[in-house]
């Protein structure tokens, strides 16, 4: 019959074996978690690279389409390459200005609609958040949009600080929000501000037509 000392030694050995087995299991679990995290990180990197490539392809397609639709005689740049300053007043108001006339395209609907379409397509390609006012957009994303729009339609490069492209973008965002509010996809502006920027039930909203339309009264409200 085992002595008390032998039983205690055996019990100690069993406890040590159990602790060692538990340690091995913990290490295996940690390795498994680390492997899963690494795999997830690789998937995220791949998705980001694919999204960036898709965005670049969309921008290239916009530029190619705009180039195909160019008029045979391109508008000449301003004398001595001076950029056109932004007109005084507020866009679309009675005492302000209309974008088409301010851009010098009052008699050239074809060029004006092409500029609108380019801005809209670049906006969608860059996935601009249309639920945000223009003033709340990421400045770096806006710079990228201005550059891409000017590459696709060089006429947009004629304006100081890209104000014409900015105005066309403001109209697009406002029209898009107004349309989605009207259809009940998102609450009205006052309700969104009161609710801390709530966007309603998150349902996908229909896209605004890329061809745009005539100048309208623009206000950063909806």
Describe the protein's topology.
Elements: H1 4-68, H2 99-102, H3 109-125, H4 139-152, H5 163-182, H6 189-194
Helix pairs in contact: 1-3, 1-4, 3-4, 3-5
Describe this structure in words.
The chain is mainly α and about 220 residues long. Helix content is about 55%, strand content about 0%. The N and C termini lie far apart (about 90 Å). The relative contact order is 0.10. Keywords: Coiled coil.
Short description:
Keywords: Coiled coil. With 222 residues, the chain is mainly alpha-helical.
Kindly state the mean pLDDT as a whole number?
74
Helix-strand topology string: HHHHHH
Q: Span between N and C termini?
A: 90 Å
* Category by helix and strand content: mainly alpha
Instruction: Supply the number of structural domains.
Output: 2
- What percentage of the residues does DSSP assign to strands (E)? under 5%
The main β sheet shows up as: none
Helix content: 55-70%
| Number of β-strand runs | 0
Based on the structure, what is the oligomeric state of the protein chains? single chain
The tally of helices reads 6
Shape: elongated
Please give the radius of gyration in angstroms.
Answer: 30 Å
Give start-end ranges of low-pLDDT stretches.
71-76, 197-218
For this entry, give a set of tags.
222 residues; mainly alpha; 2 domains; 57% helix; elongated
